[in-house]
Amino acid sequence: MLILPSAASSNQADLAGEIRRLGGHPYLHFDIEDGNFVPNITFGIKTCRALRPLSEAAFDAHLMTTDPMAYIPELLALDFKAIAFHWESTGYPMRVINAIRDGGAKAGIAVNPRTPAQEIIPYLPEIDYALVMTAEPDGRGDLFQRAMLDKIRALRTARPELAIVADGAVSGALLPEVKAAGADAAVMGRAVFSAPDPYEAICAFSRV
User: Is the whole-model pTM more than 0.70?
Assistant: First the structure.
């Protein structure tokens, strides 16, 4: 299982130190939240730009924003390798997909828990991966929604070769279920950065 540690769940007062705690893990995930599309605000382009020279990891972005096109050019300029935008954020998904792919990055569609898998199935041949939100900002600790495992299964059946990422309240205990449903990767924030040694935690989770 590929583990994508989420910078948004690290100690925001010491982002540089938190990156060092990852011990050279080759991936780092950025949840970019604008406070409009979702209630939370994480960080923006300025923070990504400051962190880019500190890591050789492949950066990927999950845009939880009302206007993904406003972020894509600068993320591409910072050599982000993959960018997922929310299906619910645009009426013209091919415009966003093409902008990402034309810039040399992998394009992903992210879906909120309330969005049925069937809505994005016609677009699966056009993308590199799907990101399934397995929790939402619910005000109760962002609880994992097991019903989302069915969504992962539906996407896996619809396009067996599609890369699928599970994102939201994924713990070590839940990883076997997430993998069995068909996910190739999991975004993990608190489970990684709350560990005494995040790198060792990632290694353990990767063996699931």
Answer: yes
Q: Give the three-class secondary structure for 202.
A: helix
**What pLDDT digit, counting tens, does each position of 61-89 carry?**
999 999 999 999 999 999 999 999 999 99
The whole-number pLDDT of residue 140 equals 64
- Hey, which CATH number is domain 2-206, 3.20.20.70, 3.80.10.10, 3.30.360.10, 3.40.50.2000? 3.20.20.70
Q: What is the CA radius of gyration of the chain?
A: 16
Alpha helices in 53-174 (DSSP H): 72-77, 93-102, 148-158
Among 102, 167, 184, 197, the active-site one is 167
Handedness of CA 33, 35, 40, 43 (dihedral sign): positive
Concerning whether 167 is annotated as a catalytic residue, the answer is yes
Whether 34 is a known active-site residue: answer no
Catalytic residue among 31, 34, 60, 102: 31
pLDDT 10s digits, 89-110: 999 999 999 999 999 999 999 9
